[in-house]
Automatic annotation (TrEMBL):
GO terms for cellular component: cytoplasm; membrane. It comes from the Bacteria. This is J domain-containing protein. The lineage of its organism: Bacteria, Pseudomonadati, Bacteroidota, Flavobacteriia, Flavobacteriales. Residues 3-67 form the J domain. It comes from Paenimyroides marinum. One of its GO terms (biological process) is protein refolding.
Amino acid sequence: MINYYVVLEIPNFSDEAVIKKAYRTLSKKYHPDINKDPFATTYFLKINEAYDFLMDANKRMLLHQYLHAVANQASTKTNYTQSNLQKNRQYSPPVTKPLIHVFQVNKKHFAVNDLVLLQWNVSQCKAVHINVLGNVSFAGTHYLKMDHFADEIIILMTITGLDNTAYKYQIKLLYDNSNPAEKAFQKIKLQFPDVDEAHFKKETFFGMNARINKNEFKNRLVFLSIPMVLNTFLFLFSTIQIVSFLIHIVLLWVIFSQCYKRIHDIEKLKNNVWQLFIPLYNLFLVKELLVSDSEATENKFGLPPKQSSKTFLNWISDKLKQLNNRMPFIYKISFGSFALLVLLVFFKTIKSFNETEVRLTSHYIETSRPQSNGRIYRDYFVVFNDEISVNVTENDFYEILSKRKYDTYKIARNNTNEIQYVRLINSNTDKDTRINFGVLHSSNPLLLLISLLFLSQLYVFNNLTAPNELAFTKGYMFFSFMVYLYGIYHTIF
């Protein structure tokens, strides 16, 4: 019987995956359209014959039986010859070790879920045992599934020789060190099966995964405190409290995310995240986060962060350089236009115009027709000097008319005579309030839209970075840029 494994140039007892791969390789190599050797056609037909034979499970089983029989016959013949020689006492044959024709794997380093192909072929022996498979035939192949982490795996083959001596041969497989984060994750997973792999990926400023060191934490807090103070000032001294409140919520969430990552970096605190939700005590906890050192080894929240001692100015400089290298031009002008829009809004909020004192002369309420759900919408107006009608909120309306909190009113106009704000003054307490109009009006949807657009823009910038997603990301940046331009125009003019 023909050993078709030899025809396909693969080890005996190879599985179907190895057979198919060998067939594809050899059929391309010896195809008559490619290989002009006169014997190529004949060999190509033989390759196809071997493939058809080996892919038939019944025929392959017959070949395996034949190969086993040949191996056993060779072993029996050797034993018979040695027995006759001993009987005749003509001479004592030398004791020979088993012959190792093949004992190998297709890779020296592995990762979890890898398939490692083990091949062996031995002769001049009585039995073969492989520690990961048990007792096996003299020749064969087997795929080993690496389903758990280990620094190394020893494949030990024990061969019982013709002299009944056990001969041992081993192959050492080492875990792949090319990705330290993946190795650390698999190692930690043995202790904590529920560990989240996301903690072992790259840490990002807005993310909630991985760990950060105390110096990075300190610099980020300083950086976040700047917009927090500016936004607090905007909230206290402007009428766009809704937008300021939303920005405040986002900033608090980002600060919490930094505390969340930092607390996971400290051995004695890493399981006490709940303490961040205790009012007042969490302020003392932040102080602890600023001075405690990182845990020296990996834990279930990621690898030890890279330590640094950069000052805040150096840290800002490095971050700006990284952003400059990472951002294409459309990203830069999009984020830059948003920063310009914020500065214009802030400037317009605190800017004073020429004010003219007016008298409150009347008021009225406009109501809409009842909706299908029975709800009625109301718009509240106060009238100054019998001709200037101003739309105000319900709260301002009742404070002006019912509570009589103000006794002096001033209207500010721009160069085109449009009302910018109304200043409400209580001369007894010197308390004054501004009701803004135009782009700074508290109910202006443009500011809310721009705030939400910027948050979504940050998400797109940080998460949609795959090559097939970049076209959408650039398009979104351009769309955001056009909206910001409209906001800038609307704020200036």
